[in-house]
Amino acid sequence: MGLETKPLSSLHAKSSYDPADFEVPTGREEEWRFTPLSRLKGLHDGTAAASGNVLVTVDAAPEAVVETAGRGDARIGAAYVPADRVSAQAYASFEKATVVTFPREAVASEPTVITFTGSGEGAAFGHTVVVLEPMAEAVVVLEHTGSAVYADNVEFVVGDGATLKVVSLQDWADDAVHVSHHHARLGRDATFRSFAVTLGGDLVRLSPSVAYTAPGGDADLTGLYFADAGQHLEHRLLVDHSQPNCKSNVVYKGALQGEGAHAVWIGDVIIRVEAEGTDTYELNRNLLLTDGARADSVPNLEILTGEVAGAGHASASGRLDDEHIFYLQARGIPFDEARRLVIRGFFAQLLEKIELPELRERVFARVEAELER
């Protein structure tokens, strides 16, 4: 499969299944300028040999069909063409893909949990496909644990009138490196809800993207991250509005503490000429809890039609509000507890979007553990 070009944006002009079609990143490219390439363990330049192992297990809802598929399966790569070298390397290097299908009009009675567990030895590559046939409804949880150097692609194919809710939890060990692309392709009147939680790992670079194939699609992308000393957590989003009367909403919030803690958020929204009636908004907020932490936040909105229902973006990074802390302390709450309450409030509205109580409480607990550090 050869090179494809798309006249969208200078940032997203190339896609290919072949790593050779992409230059090896140097760090001077716009899409790589924030990523510390020396910490990618060779995932970006082809030197990372596929000698490691990330075990994939699926605890599926009764309505789901789970299969292991080879590269020749027509469903593999049908919805997404890699847009950078690491993504293409992952596509060229994986051995078996996990395919989870929810049949037409099926309503899953419980979440399907896909767990990725690193063994801590060598690099590994993976591919996952989640297919919702028309009018199906499902909740899928992607959970990443253990130690790994891992690159993968995840395709979400949401059929006409279907509803998919995804929670992706990056809870890796402290030495893990994970570079991943999540791509959702939405059919007519399809609904996609994504919640990304990134807490663990030495370097995590997650790139969610959304494309519409018919009018009426509705995508909501939410993210929460907490970077500690030395951690690099990067989220690069792309919403490609190519159909009329579709919606998208992006809200990502992060907290950072410790020397060298680094968070990167890039939000790209493209509204093509034919995408009249688009309604879109993106928001990023960062809390810098200590000196030495750094947050880079870059929203980009490219509008190629004047007929939109709404389009906007906002981004801000700052420290805890002294007035909020003072207000709580004036009512007898110690400083440490007041600080914790303000940070909880910062994340609370997002966490309410996790509809699984056990998972929501687990994420709350992990955020609390980060604060204890």
TrEMBL record:
NCBIfam families: sufD (TIGR01981). Coiled coil: none annotated. Belongs to the iron-sulfur cluster assembly SufBD family. Pfam families: SUFBD_core. It comes from the Bacteria. This is Fe-S cluster assembly protein SufD. The gene is sufD. The lineage of its organism: Bacteria, Bacillati, Actinomycetota, Actinomycetes, Streptosporangiales. Residues 119-346 form the SUF system FeS cluster assembly SufBD core domain. One of its GO terms (biological process) is iron-sulfur cluster assembly. InterPro entries: Fe-S_cluster_assembly_SufBD, SUF_FeS_clus_asmbl_SufBD_core, SUF_FeS_clus_asmbl_SufBD_sf, SUF_FeS_clus_asmbl_SufD. Residues 1-22 are annotated as: Disordered.
